[in-house]
C-alpha cells in the first residue's frame, strides 16, 4: 500500500508516519521509485504498536525506539528476553554505583528469596520509586512492602504463563507489549479494588 | 522564611517556585510588603509533594493542581475521600456516554462482586486501558483479567489498611500520595517478580 493508505488505515497522519520513519521507529517500506515506497501489513501492525507505546504506555520516543529495536533483534536465549524487555523499558541496567546504593530493593529481594539478577533494571526502578515516595513524604513499612511484593508476584505468574513459547520474537513482543500496555490496566484495577475495600471498611 | 530560603531548602529554583504560586499549586505566603512574603514549613512540605507528583508521579501540572486543590478542601464524609482522590488523579468521573460504553469494566466488576460506584473514575480508566491494550494488539483473556483483579485487591487491602483515621485531610493526603507514589513501586515489583517467575520456569 502507499503511505497515504497506511495513514488512512492507521489513523496516523502522513507527516507523523514520516517522522516515525526518520526516527527509526518504523522500518522502511520497499522503494518503488526515488521518492515513493510501498508498505505492508507489518507496517500497519508496527504503527499501531508505536501508537500504543506512546499513548497508553506513556513512553518517550527514545524509549519506544529501544522497544522496537529490541523487537527487531530478539536475543537468542529465551531467558534473556526479560532482561532485554526491561532494559528497553527502563532505559538500561543499573550502573555499578546505583547498584551498590540499591539497599532497600536488595533487602526486599533477599527477604523474599526471589531470583533476580544483581544488575536487573527493575532493582534500580524499585529503588528510585521508593526514594521518590520517601521524598514525597511516604515511607512504606517493610510489612506493607512485602505484602505488595507478594501480590505483584501473583500478577507476574499470570504474565509469564501467557508468554508464547513458539518463537523468541513472539515471546519478546508479548513481554514488552504486555508489560507496557497492562501497567495501566493493573493501576485501574488497583483503584477499583480500593473502592471495594473502602466500601466494606466501617468509617 | 524568605522565598530564597524555601528555594535552598527544597532544591527548587525561585523561578519555579514563583511558577507554582502563579499556577495555584503552592499556597501564597504571608505578605510582608508589596513585593515580599514569608513562607513556613507547610510551604516546604507542599513543594516536596509537588515535586513528587510531577516527577515520580508523572502528573501534568493541571492534574497536580487538582490534587492540591483536593488536599486543600477535603470532603466532609470519609467515604467520599476515594472519589475525590481518584477524580483528581484521573481527570474526572465518567461522562454518561463513557459510562454506558464501559462494558468490559462493568462485566468484570459484576463478576467479582465488587462494590464500585457506577460513575467511579476507575471504571473509565480500566475501560480506556483495556481499549488501548486491544489497539496495541493485546487482548486480555477474561481468566487472566480476573487473576489480575484478585492480585490488585490484595494491594488495595494494604492500601486501605494504611489510611490514617484521625482526620479527613490526613486521610485524603495519604490516599492521593499513596496512589500516585506507590504506582511506580508496584510496577517495579511486577518486573522483579517477572524475573523471579521466569527464572523458575523451564525454558
UniProtKB/TrEMBL annotation, chains A, B:
Alphabetic keyword roster: DNA-binding
GO molecular function: DNA binding; DNA-binding transcription factor activity
Keyword DNA-binding: yes
Pfam family, one: MerR_1
Protein name: MerR-like DNA binding protein
Residue span(s) of domain HTH merR-type: 1-70
Keyword Acyltransferase belongs to the record: no
Naturally occurring in which organism (per UniProt): Oryzihumus leptocrescens
Signal peptide limits: none
Amino acid at each position: 500500500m502507499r503511505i497515504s493508505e497506511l495513514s488512512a488505515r492507521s489513523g496516523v497522519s502522513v507527516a507523523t508516519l514520516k517522522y516515525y520513519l526518520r526516527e527509526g521507529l518504523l522500518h522502511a517500506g520497499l522503494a518503488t521509485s526515488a521518492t515513493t515506497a510501498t508498505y505492508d501489513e507489518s507496517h500497519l501492525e508496527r504503527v499501531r504498536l508505536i501508537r500504543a507505546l506512546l499513548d497508553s504506555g506513556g513512553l518517550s520516543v527514545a524509549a519506544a525506539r529501544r522497544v522496537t529495536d529490541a523487537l527487531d533483534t530478539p536475543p537468542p536465549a529465551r531467558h534473556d528476553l526479560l532482561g532485554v524487555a526491561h532494559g528497553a523499558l527502563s532505559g538500561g541496567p543499573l550502573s555499578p554505583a546505583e547498584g551498590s546504593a540499591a539497599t532497600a530493593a536488595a533487602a526486599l529481594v533477599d527477604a523474599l528469596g526471589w531470583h533476580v539478577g544483581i544488575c536487573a533494571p527493575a532493582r534500580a526502578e524499585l529503588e528510585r520509586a521508593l526514594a521518590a515516595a520517601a521524598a514525597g513524604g511516604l515511607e512504606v513499612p517493610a510489612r506493607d512492602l512485602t505484602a505488595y511484593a507478594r501480590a505483584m508476584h501473583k500478577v507476574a505468574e499470570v504474565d509469564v504463563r501467557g508468554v508464547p513459547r513458539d518463537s523468541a520474537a513472539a515471546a519478546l513482543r508479548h513481554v514488552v507489549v504486555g508489560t507496557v500496555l497492562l501497567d495501566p490496566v493493573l493501576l485501574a484495577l488497583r483503584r477499583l479494588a480500593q473502592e471495594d475495600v473502602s466500601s466494606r471498611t466501617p468509617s
